[in-house]
């Protein structure tokens, strides 16, 4: 199994859980979109910086046969799917676990 396929399964599962949590808790996507976008931007920058540092320092490497070949610096593009999955998965888990849904004028 290659990293792109594995990443796809993680993204699909996270997206499904996120959509279910929005539906069950009746949370409008527009009320959470700015926070999700900000979190995604921050995690993407952190992933780019720290993945490149860790790969450059020799902490780990990848077998090229399991990658798509697209890289941001030294970091393979597949590594950037994990922050996206986390941005979808963590709020969904919070809301489904009984955590407070976002309050705002868009909320019914």
From TrEMBL:
The UniProt transmembrane annotation reads: 6-24, 36-60, 80-97
Q: Record keywords: Isomerase included?
A: yes
Q: Which domain of life is it from?
A: Bacteria
Membrane protein topology class? Multi-pass membrane protein
Q: In which pathway does it act?
A: Carotenoid biosynthesis
Q: Which residues form the Lycopene cyclase domain?
A: 14-91
Q: Where in the cell is it found?
A: Membrane
**Keywords noted in UniProt:** Carotenoid biosynthesis, Isomerase, Membrane, Transmembrane, Transmembrane helix
Q: What is this protein called?
A: Lycopene cyclase domain-containing protein
- What species was this sequence derived from? Paeniglutamicibacter kerguelensis
